[in-house]
Input
Amino acid sequence: MGDGAMGGSTQGMAGAPAGMGGDPTGMGGDPTGMGGDPTGTGGAPSGTPPANPACADLWADVDADFVECEGAAAMAAWSFMDLTGMTIDNEGATVAPCVEARCTADEIYVAANALPHYDFVRTTPNELVTANTVYRIPIQPSPVSSEGAVDAASLSACEDALAQYASNPNQATNNEPSGLCVQGGAGRVAYDELSNGSTVYWQQLPCLGYAGFLTNGVPYFGPNEGPMPDPYGNPLFAGPGVAGEPENNLRGGAVLDMCGGHTAFSMHYHGINEACFAKDDARRPRSSYAEGAQAWNLDTWLNGDCETDSPIVGWNADGYPIKGSCICVERTPDGACSQLKRARSSWAYQGLHSHGRRPDNLAVEGDACTSHDDCCEGNQCDFRCAYSVFDAPEAGGGTVAEKRCVLLDYAWCTHGYMDRSTADVSGNNFVYLDRCNGYEGADGYSYHATGSFPYIAGCYRGEPTAGGGGGGMGMRPPGGGMPPPGMDGMLPSCEELGRRNRCCGDGMCRGPETPENCPADC
Output
């Protein structure tokens, strides 16, 4: 999500995003989104990248006819970090992260062990563990089918979340209530009829678990957490807005590290600090965790001008790339970028109260603030003074990105997608993304990491790899290895969790545990 140079081992991380101009459906042009120098390594590679010996065992159970990577496949394969020979510190233990790409005629296979490329920084009670996985993504993404699609306006049941919060804010709804993500199985296909006359089809992300993966081989999850301690809450609201600020984590929530990740069963990301994923020309990580963390700045990622377009930092399960928050909107015939803009999400913070009558315990929601104490005080406070995008008809482009009092809970229900397809942003330094947080820029369609909800992606514009919505998305744990957490969108049992996750018998009902699966605590 970030840009700007870091001290010591520096990198220019600025770039620019785009809005809804050109092809409003975001599916025309180069469907791979691979134009320019998407790998961020300074050139257009060809062939299959060298093997990483640390990944060798992960390929043992993979039955595929691999071929030399060429064209778009080679660009994708070379976008991943070269972690050969690297080790990281895992709280005193030395472990080796691995990620390696191979190609078939139609797909990219990526073997990884879900270990980050930097020394582990624990921000949850969960240990960092190896989770051997082989991902698959299509070389040529396919648009989501319109068959069986429902009107997106029919999906939400956020009134249930509002009623629950009004009556008992410490109790979650039985399931994620928005209807905008899927809790197990293939996601539903929905459509939006936009003001520019186009109809856009999209598929739900999983509510819990794998949605795609980054260039270090670690998966990313959607923009919400589980039902406890902040029901289906926003994982970025609990962290600082700018590097060096104190954490906002007053209730033991799931704070992210300063690259945007944390551990559950395995490491995963909810946001992306682009500086952490910068590579040199040899595809080696360009900075340490400490250096990359200094670039964490939500204000810059939302409002700052861009200096260069962002490279690929990951891949969604549908095969479209994920880039940082700066997009090249237009290029000259010789390939130089002639227009850069910042990516701005079309989702605005509207508040849980927007789904009905505002109860007294949501009185401060949306209020201006400069500190958390402006919102509420004490370790049971449900609000944070945090950055988001807000509707502002009087502002250029119709929104502002600033700090206000926001609710930690129910991330999907506190935000609303707004059709920005005809918004005039000609006088702004940003352009709007589509519902899925993607944009059709000069280099094709890409998702873009942003400093506000949904942070990485809000849905799929392409058909996700075999497995559909939360059912695996092409992740194949070799030899029966453990897949990333919440793959089926369901809460695991206490036996599956064990004491690593503060579950049964530890005296703390902070979950995900319930009276049904953990009577010892709940």
User: Anything to note?
Assistant: The chain has six helices and 25 strands. Confidence is low (pLDDT under 50) at residues 2-36, 467-513. Residues 495-522 form one domain.
